[in-house]
Known about the structure:
- By secondary structure, the chain is an alpha/beta fold.
- The chain folds into two domains: 9-199, NAD(P)-binding Rossmann-like Domain (Rossmann fold, 3-Layer(aba) Sandwich), CATH 3.40.50.720; 203-345, Orthogonal Bundle (N-(1-d-carboxylethyl)-l-norvaline Dehydrogenase, domain 2), CATH 1.10.1040.10.
- The protein has 14 helices and ten strands.
- The strands form two sheets. An eight-stranded mixed beta sheet has the order 3-2-1-4-5-8-9-10, with helices on both faces.
- Helix 8 (201-223) packs across helix 13.
- The chain is globular, with a radius of gyration of 20 Å.
Amino acid sequence: MENGHAGKHRVAVIGSGNWGSVASRLLASNTAKLPSFHDEVRMWVFEETLPTGEKLSESINQAHENCKYLPGIKLGTNVIADPDLESAVKDADMLVFVTPHQFVEGICKKLVGKLRPGVEAISLIKGMEVKMEGPCMISKLITNTLGINCCVLMGANIANEIAVEKFSEATIGYREDKEAANRWAKLFTTPYFLVAIVEDIEGVELCGTLKNVVAIAAGLVDGLDMGNNTKAAIMRIGLREMRAFSKLLFPSVRDNTFFESCGVADLITTCLGGRNRRVAEAFARNGGKRSFDELEAEMLHGQKLQGVSTAREVYEVLTYHGWQELFPLLSTVHEICIGQLPPTSIVEYRLAEGQS
Length: 356
């Protein structure tokens, strides 16, 4: 697919938080170098008024820096912040979705009928929507609402490390359209950011989604000072439950996907660093007396925690199918998050019989 305007692709990024800002910076450095792309990367900003009284989008365009979500990092003069969603995407034929997962549906509804023909999308978003008929992955939500092809990019990508160009890898998951996946890989690949492509969109996306639940478990273990053996056990059990849950939902999911960056590597980095781990540690240190909402507001300054809401969504699916006993770790995390069980329960369950 080539688009109508002189064969050059235009990129817009929907979202401007921590990862959205880093992704925009990385993409803009590539669009400036690659002849098949327009230099400018439009970044849609959910407008906020900063403590100085200045608007966030204006601040980004003047300083070329997101002082709220990525302070101290220059984004590049070709990243243009735009607080108007329709205006940000109107000329783009490559859309990068990178907002908290709970906002995607509303954003997509606003974009219906507003996009150029032949637009391609990619989602960097970790999470799922649970509908009456079952779980709906974010890429599917984008495809269904907007009628466009949507790949996913997931990986061991703690944003602040990529912002300072420390070496990192990622995985692009696609369904059938390998050419689109290759175009996205070209757009994202840099000497410090290596991208592999895998024809298993559900597997890649579920890895990115479910690892945040396991990271909550890892954070609880840290907050209870249980040490590295326990944390390794939690990560192993978590990875096994991630794989089993993914394959029950989507039998097409491939085992190999769990050995890509989006799988074991993302699980490791999120359980070692990452905001889900950090807030869960604080939750356990407070003996579960302070809620995740309260800790999120205090510790993350406007960033969103994904693990707690994903744990709830996963629990809804488990309950609906009667699978809680098959997934003791995923179930227990949710029950701890809502205060049904104490943080210490994270290591008190018995493995389900016959699990290998």
